[in-house]
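Why do we care about 3D structure at all? Because function follows from shape, and shape follows, mostly, from sequence. That is the central idea of this module. The next example makes it concrete: a single protein chain, its amino acid sequence, and then its structure expressed as tokens.
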Amino acid sequence: MKKFRNYIIVFFFIFISSCGYSPLLNSEKNNFRIGVLNFEGDRQINNFIFSNLKKYQNSKNNLKKYNLKIASSYEKIITNKDENGNPKNYNLQIKLNVIIDIEGGAKLNKSFEKNASLSAKSKKMDEKQLEKKYKKNLSISLSEDIIFFLINQ
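And the structure:
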């Protein structure tokens, strides 16, 4: 019985290791490249998005070329307050409006949105640092959404 279980474990290991997994965000195997990137809106968000998308500008032998114009907006909305009227929780919301110019002359307009909840901290400095971290994480997630959208075009 023990030998049979060992054979099953070896079989599953071989099956799983040879499943053909390849990462979706591997820039070497994409069928597109980004030509021009234009940004409007929140500078910090745009910098985070640019740092994630710039590696897709360097590939020269890809089939499709996209020029992107990205307009970003950021809102920090108070969701509830304590009995003194001080904020307890916030909703952080980033919206992107992306205009995609395809090399053949067609244009696509796509909107992306991400939200996160942030609880208020007693030290405003800690709250600002946490808010910046959330902005960065949401921006990276949005830039990955843009890449997935371009891969599937």
